[in-house]
Amino acid sequence: MYQTLKYIFIRIGASLFLLLTFGFLTLYFIHEVALPNASFEDSFIQGVIFFICLFLGFFAYGLVGEQKFHNAMYKLKNISGSMESVEIIDGFQALIDFTYSAYFLPSKGKSLRDNVILKFANYLLFVGRKDSSAQKIYLKAFLIKPEDSTYRSPLLSVFKEDDDLTGEEIELLLVILKAGNYRDDSIVNNLASLFLRKGVFSRQTEPIYLSSLKSKSEHSKKIINLVLPILLKTNRSDLFAVNFYLEVYSFEPSEASQAFGIIARAYCDGTWLGIDETLHRRCEAVFESFDHKFRNEILQNTAEASLSKKIHKLKVLNENDLRLLRKLKVRMGLSASPLDLLRETAIKLLGFARTFASKFLIIRTWFFTIILVLFISLTYRGWLAKQEIFFGVEDQSVTVKEKQTNGLKKLEIHTFQVAAFSSLKQSRRFINALKKKGVRDVYQVKTKKKSGESWYKIRVGRFDSKENAQRFARQLIEQKTIKTYFLISLPIS
Fold this sequence. Notes:
Layout: H1 2-34, H2 43-77, H3 85-98, H4 106-127, H5 132-144, H6 152-159, H7 167-179, H8 185-198, H9 206-214, H10 220-233, H11 239-251, H12 260-268, H13 277-288, H14 292-311, H15 319-332, H16 338-359, H17 361-405, E1 411-421, H18 424-436, E2 442-448, E3 454-463, H19 466-478, E4 486-492
Antiparallel strand pairs: 1-3, 1-4, 2-3
Helix pairs in contact: 1-2, 2-3, 2-17, 3-4, 4-5, 8-9, 9-11, 12-13, 12-14
């Protein structure tokens, strides 16, 4: 929760900071520098600035974090021989701490952190570290990837010949041993001895006792004396019980006399046939070792019990039970629900997107940047086009008004020339540049030279006095829109 809140608030803070700095400076430049005399609605520009700041504050901020992480990982992948072991370990630890930063959501940070921990554990195994800090990393790596035996060995070595174990350490050992299919005899026997002294027998300790009995340990007799009476008292015939009876029979057959019937019935009923073929064959071997009379009795009793079950067979599952069964199958993962299928598809697509994004991080950043720049450019050009149309219409109306008002009287109209070109292309380029800077009423006058070539003169404005024309020209010079000018007075009717 803390990391999630930190992730959100820091990004909100970064976005607000960009709005107050980048946003203000952008609007100031547009209104005070680029278009000082233009009056227009800038809500669209504000919206664009807002989304840019939001993009940089949220998305781009995360990209920076991912890039930092991958850069650090690249350095740790390419470890040189000159690097000290302490330096490498500090680098791994710093990278683990970095995954808890506000650059990542908890789920993303955990995914990256798990990857770092596994690589860190592999490095520690490579250099042969066995200290307490290394053991903590091995433990984390085991909890992430319990099926990998590489991380179990250094953990098990810590607990060998150690009787003073806490409850948490015992639980950890049980998990480690289960992941390794109880193959470490020394740990198994050590735990069996500990459980025997405490007189503990539970579902968790059953595999320990069975494994210790299979290895013919020194505790075998004590295990039989503790466990066998309990199993026979409740007449247990489950998987553990049958396996335990068979181990007792192979270890000391006289102790398993009461369990003969359970083993024989398990074989005759075919309880483990198709489920555990090895167990079924072991039951068969024990059954065949009995005398002929005993086997016939077991077969007869089994046949009668089977017939009785068929006669009294009831329809156990009603419609409600079947519905609950279907739900249970979905919950246990035996069948998938439509929601699960949809979720799996979404997870796969998301995983593909993350993989693609991580591999093409720089390309992705530049792609979005280019798209954003193109969008802003097209928007700005469209706005300029609208302004040009507006100014053109306004200027035309002024000219017509002047003609209508002064139609009977000859007056002078004043303008000023800012440039002259012999190329039409250069002339149009210069006019477009002036219009982009917000200059109104820019027009072109074509004249002929004595040589027959054309002159394209660029003039600005139509003023009723020289003072007004000169004032506007000086204003353009102060804004560095033009470099020079000269006034022209033209007679009009």
